[in-house]
Amino acid sequence: MSIIYTLANQKGGVGKTTTAVNVAAYLAAEGFNVLLVDIDPQANATSSLGVDRRQLATSVYDVLVNQTPLETAITPTQWPRLHIVPSANQLAGATVELVSALAREHRLRVALEGAPDRYDYTLIDCPPSLGILTVNGLTAARNGVIIPVQCEYLALEGLSQLVQTIDLVRRALNPDLRIRGLVMTMFDPRTNLSRQVIQEVRQHFGNRVFRTIIPRSVRLGEAPSFGEPILSHDPRSSGARAYQVLTKELLLGDGKI
Amino acid sequence: MSIIYTLANQKGGVGKTTTAVNVAAYLAAEGFNVLLVDIDPQANATSSLGVDRRQLATSVYDVLVNQTPLETAITPTQWPRLHIVPSANQLAGATVELVSALAREHRLRVALEGAPDRYDYTLIDCPPSLGILTVNGLTAARNGVIIPVQCEYLALEGLSQLVQTIDLVRRALNPDLRIRGLVMTMFDPRTNLSRQVIQEVRQHFGNRVFRTIIPRSVRLGEAPSFGEPILSHDPRSSGARAYQVLTKELLLGDGKI
Ligand SMILES: Nc1ncnc2c1ncn2[C@@H]1O[C@H](COP(=O)(O)OP(=O)(O)OP(=O)(O)O)[C@@H](O)[C@H]1O
Ligand SMILES: Nc1ncnc2c1ncn2[C@@H]1O[C@H](COP(=O)(O)OP(=O)(O)OP(=O)(O)O)[C@@H](O)[C@H]1O
Ligand SMILES: [Mg+2]
Ligand SMILES: [Mg+2]
């Protein structure tokens, strides 16, 4: 049984994709079999791993809307043990297409339960909204949700709304849903703002905030333009180190190391 | 007749709210009567101007879903000539509530046509998606859409999807819809990535890219925590200067100065 984590936060640009892609890559580098599922119509996780979404026959769109078996959409990447279920632009239409579908919130969970049992970890990258795609991601999150939080004031504002949505999904759709942890991202040590935001988040969420803080690092922004995770693009950068340490912290908490 | 611009880009965290709030504030400072309409359920534009959404009787939710007259939702801010139609969290539910409504894409356009004719400019801030709320924003955009583009690689990827959506809305809902301009945001002169992204955007969009470039400036991230636009928080910062110059460039192009 794969451990399934969903990366969610309706605030845009907070590092959901960057965290999903880089934690997935370090998990694979540590020897675990990893599946990354991209349910964002922007397909940023797909292109961040060098997969060209125009070349694909099947995507997560088919899995969710046409109930195609997940297995047919699984695509290997250049990195051993790291596979992806890619997204595609037509997923943007899924929101409307799924509105009257039966058990529409469970499509992803059901698809993942039918997946081959060869993955140790499954990470799901969500779009910046609390619509049907993110609700699918939260319903499928067997082991919890990982919430990237940018070290910016506006990123604080949306957290209470996100927690309310998580509570709703726990009550109505996924009784096991819990917050696995909050990851502070794009930390800039030169500014008070970054420190204040971390302090504020720690006050509210206590030890559910991962100790590892991800610094702002240009290398992390460059890596997707080469279609590779940071461990390939620049493994000695501060961003790479931080994601490596975060992955270790996650594995420790999961009792895997 | 108010000039109506919509700020849209489904990529998250690119500076839609920051651009809407600060251009609105500088337009008001230049003597124009300005209405800022916040159709993002996160309500970041609302809190960036110090308006407490929990205290409000009516919001843009009532205007869109209950067809309450826009006039009743208009709220003054501390700054002369700058009014806002605030958002509220329950707007997140509007996407589902509006699905079967008649002419659901025209709700905002119709509401704005019923607004008092005392505004020179109306700016609409959208959420990071291409759903019904952003489509309402694009349908209401009488004079065009302003597209903030973060100087990051992943921000490039979504532009073609956004342009396709704009074309769709022009054909089906708003024949006058055009791109008023693209604003490059969070420019970091120390990195090649920023420069490459600007070059790439200029190649595709030519002179539809505003000449004014908004630099990354911590002050811009701080201002919302004080509930004020940058011209109040730190008028001499690089971010303030850039938004002042951008506003002048917009006014020049509109033949207002
Ligand atoms: N620690 C970091 N340092 C510098 N840049 C970063 C960092 N993390 C992410 N970025 C860059 O910031 C931008 C936003 O990050 P990302 O796209 O991962 O966020 P997101 O939450 O997935 O966005 P969306 O809401 O659009 O899905 C991207 O261009 C990314 O490359
Ligand atoms: N030029 C800038 N320099 C530094 N920080 C900025 C700048 N512009 C915006 N920010 C900060 O970056 C974050 C993202 O900006 P903003 O919220 O305006 O983007 P958005 O596109 O409206 O996001 P969303 O997609 O969630 O609506 C915010 O915390 C904001 O304060
Ligand atoms: Mg993303
Ligand atoms: Mg915004």
Walk me through the structure.
2 copies of one chain form a homodimer. Chain A is of the alpha/beta class. Chain A is built from 12 helices and 7 strands. Chain A has helices spanning 16-29, 44-48, 60-65, 94-97, 107-113, 132-140, 153-157, 159-172, 192-205, 218-222, 230-233, 238-253, and strands spanning 3-7, 34-38, 75-76, 82-85, 121-125, 144-150, 179-185. Chain A has a 7-stranded mixed beta sheet with strand order 3-4-2-5-1-6-7, with helices on both faces. In chain A, strand 3 and strand 4 form a beta hairpin. In chain A, helix 1 (16-29) crosses helix 12 (238-253) and helix 5 runs parallel beside helix 6 (132-140). The longest helix of chain A has 16 residues, at 238-253. Chain A is globular, with a radius of gyration of 17 Å. The interface between A and B is large, with 39 and 39 residues. The complex binds adenosine-5'-triphosphate (2 copies) and magnesium ion (2 copies). One magnesium ion (MG) is lined by residues 16-17, 40, 44 of chain B.
Describe the oligomeric state of these chains in a short phrase.
homodimer
Shape assignment of chain A: globular
Structural class of chain A: alpha/beta
Tell me the series of helices and strands of chain A, N- to C-terminal: EHEHHEEHHEHEHHEHHHH
Largest interface: A-B, 39 and 39 residues
Spatial order of the strands in the main sheet of chain A?
Answer: 3-4-2-5-1-6-7
Number of beta strands of chain A: 7
